[in-house]
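Forwarding the complex inputs:
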Amino acid sequence: MMELTICGRGGQGGVTLAKIIASAYFLKGKYVQAFGLYAAERSGAPLQAFVRVDDEEITNHNQIQHPDHIVVLDRTLIVPGMDAILKPGGTIIVNLPKDRNDDLKHFSGRTVSIIDATTIAVANGLGTRTVPIVNTTMAGSIAKVLNLTLADMLAALEYLNFTTPNKICVTEAFEQVQTHHVEGDIHKPTVSVDPIKVADIFDEDLGGMPKIKTGSWATEKPERRQLTPPCNQICPAGNDVRGFVEAVGKQDFNLALSVLLETSPLPAVCGRVCPGPCMESCNRSEFDEPVNVREIERSAAELGTRPEPTRSWREAAIAVVGSGPAGLSAAYQLARLGYAVTMYEADEELGGVLRTGIPAYRLPPKILDEEIDYILRHDVSVRVGCQLQRKDILRLSQDYQAVFVATGLQTVSELDLGDKGSPAPMQGLQFLEVVRTGGMRLDGQRVIVIGGGNTAMDAARSALRIGADTVRVVYRRTRSEMPAIDEEIEQALEEGIILDELVSPVRLSESGKHHLLSCQRMVLGPADASGRPRPMEDISPDAHFDLSCDLVILALGQSHDVSILPEGAVIKEGEALLGLSGAPFYVGGDFATDEGTVSAAIGCGVRAAKHIHRALSGEDLFPPPAEPVATSDVIKFNRFEPQARESVNTLNPATRQCSFEEVHLGFQAGPNGAGAVTEALRCFSCGVCNQCDRCLEYCPEGILRQDCEDGGYVFDLEYCKGCGVCMTACPRAAIYMTGL
Amino acid sequence: MSRTLATGNHVAGHALALAGEANRNSRGCCAGAYPITPQTEIIEYLSGFSFTKGRVVLVESEHSAMGVCMGAALAGARTFTASSSNGLAYMTENVFAAGYYRLPTVMIAVNRTLGPPWNIWVDQGDSLIMRDAAWLQFYCGSHQDLQDTVLLAFRVAEDHRVMLPVIVAMDGFVTSHTQMVVDLPEQDQVDEFLPPCVIPHGLKHDHPATFGGLTWPSETEHHRYEIQQSMEAVIPVLEQARDEFEDIFGRRPAGALETFETDDAETIVIACNTMARTLHNVVIERRKKGEKIGMIRTKLFRPFPRKELLAAIGTAKRVAVLDRNHSPGSGGIFWLEIAATLRQCPDVLLQDYLVGLGGGDVTPENINAIIDDLNHRTTASDPEWKDTTA
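Prediction (whole assembly, two chains):
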């Protein structure tokens, strides 16, 4: 009986090789037996296969203990002493690259046949360079060693329906195999060695890592990547939202604040008044509720310590006209870049619309003052009470090396509500300014506010606070189309504001001591250019009605006053206006765009600072194009547990009706920001590794380790088999597999 | 007849397919099937076979696989399936139902260790769960024995004197995944050997009936007694089937037992499946040295062939049983049956050896060590555990 043992790896075709050899003998009329030693297999794991050949029926069914031949499909499977199991005179057939003859020292005193099967198999397109399938090539060399003819082995391949490249490999190997007698004495085994068990494959000194470098079995490799979280992508201010939320999650409020201060000098303001597009885009909203980023930002501003401001060191001086959020942002960024900045403001106090357009119960002046103070400590000087005209602006462009104009929206929209002599409605912004300076009471009066934006809400709620008996908000569409922050609408309703949806004011007239607002009911029609449904007149007979009131406030939005710029100037953010003197001259904020939020204005200021810096210094601080966005479909929701938002405190509605105290009071859980930390830990960290260790825990090979430098992970590709478990385990798509 | 190189799974799948096809002029065939290692290739083979009249119904579990077989058998089809290990354990409730319904389904059990701990290799504990399920049980040695026994199984199961289902067991991997030389029959030979399947108590549209309704104790007792009577009819029916098999196929498959050198043996070793074939070589070697030793391969386990076993043991003084199965708290399950059979032979020293559990590789050296142990004994002890890795 001839007995042969094949040592290979899962995927190399060892069991099939046993079948090929058995078939060659079967076709010559012999009795044969071919079997593999099956285990919990995966690609690349060591395996054995066996062949018995005899002239009589084979009845032994045990594994082969002492073969006549050992076939080694992969030189990494060579284990010193593995030849000890051979019968006396037994031989070895090994797949060995041409430059690896030193491996033969393990077979001293033996007859060894060598074939570079990998090269032949790869050349004939069998498998890939990393996972060549060498079984048929080895069959060719085995035929030669076992004194079969080439025709015998080709007949076996024909019998088993192998393709032509396999037959070519058999032929090449049959011709190329070389048999040597290795000098020296046969190793006397000290312990019996079973090639499959490869007892010392794991090296204790390497922490149990296998000695065999298994990276060559891989067809793919993992790589770390960073996608753009949707919150970062959408934040108009350009904040690293995910970054500061992560820092809060680690209870590092100083770090969180410094992340915010990179892009925005107004985190305490935004933490109160930002509509929070980041929360609308938050992937968590598809899972349970979006992360309450605004409230976390407020906590970071409150609990973090601001770094010491820097002083200017550059020669160039820059003028910023207007001290709203865009102007403040630009001044702050330019000051941090080392420029001496002078701000010009028409009012007596800085802040622009932040001060005049947002009531104190939403943004206490103290909070605004603190943030402005921090900006001014960066070598920013101020000229207040400077209402600049066109000629002044032109002079600035002579006196400064660059000018940024962000004077906001100074022209309010009017509404024709009747003939001359009708009672005049009051403008919302004007009303808010009068209220702010304490010059008005509305005790017992009935107030109607026309509009659906934040100014309308602010005017309505302010009217209530200065004594109004009833306050109605009249809006042409429905609540869901209102541009105001939904939370503000909700709080207004809580406070007792009446919302008249689908109502359009037509005419305002006197009626004795009171005013009469004639109204028309509306219905929603098809979408207009803004994408919102167009309000259309209700044609039913009772669609007209009158509302009696004492004061009507108009809050229909504003537009910019371009009279300060040279005639014909095209207002476009980021483009230096020509026709002025040599100084770069930029416009921004609501003056240049119609985005209308504080965060958009901040972002505009940041960009203006970068434009100016590039024009003056040649240095480009604009970031490279962002990575793709980590959309919800790449986040593995099943890796997370549902967790409700942290509760926040608000002033009770009864107190609010007669007080300008701040309504929002921050997270309930405290002290020391415990609520903010818990809420921050709800963040999925979409597309960005946050060292959750899941890949480390799931890697079946233990080939990941944490990098000391950046805290991320390093893959040991010497051992990585490319299984992709890390990619599957990563909840946030921060690992992907790429071809080798 | 064609000689070929095939795995045990291929052989079993081929035999099932030819048997199913042989019923094409009657009510056809049906297999309810669910894959599990190491039996999966049988299901794959059957799924790839083009039946003239019949089909493989892939289901969501082994329990349903046997349900499909029962329903199809009641409708008159020739039915068959295959399973292993925990899959077989999950099927168990319906395995008993098929037995007590007396439906002549043939099931290939590719023996695999029951988990946990998880183990894919051979151990007979899975099919031996069905010891009391009113099924016949055959345990096969060579690939040829497997091929022939599958055909015999249909013939015996569907015989109206028997009308009981049959398990045909083989060793997981050692048989199921090993390529060996085997003679596969032709369809016309199988057609000749297997008459159309007729289920006398099956569903008939002109004779509506309810199956499995409530019975009183005396009726149930009678049902069990009838099954016992049918079990006792198995060996004569099997002998008749072997005769006809030999006429058609030109070789005589093993019957209830296979004996070797037992006539004058003082020592007899009893084993099963492929372990018995390795034992066969050991007996040849020891006989060459003058030892009066013989062996028995137990092939039929249900009904247990007591009479045939007693005759084979004859005057032997020492008997060893090699059990690749274990009933915790007792011992080897074949040993229990053999001990009950030898109750009237108090002079025989009967020793049980638990060997190759969980798929341990049983080598000639292991078997020689067991025989040496047996030969030095003066009394029998509790079942001995023999570690094959030692």
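The interface with chain B takes residues 18-19, 22-23, 26, 31-36, 38-40, 57-63, 65 of chain A (CB under 8 Å).
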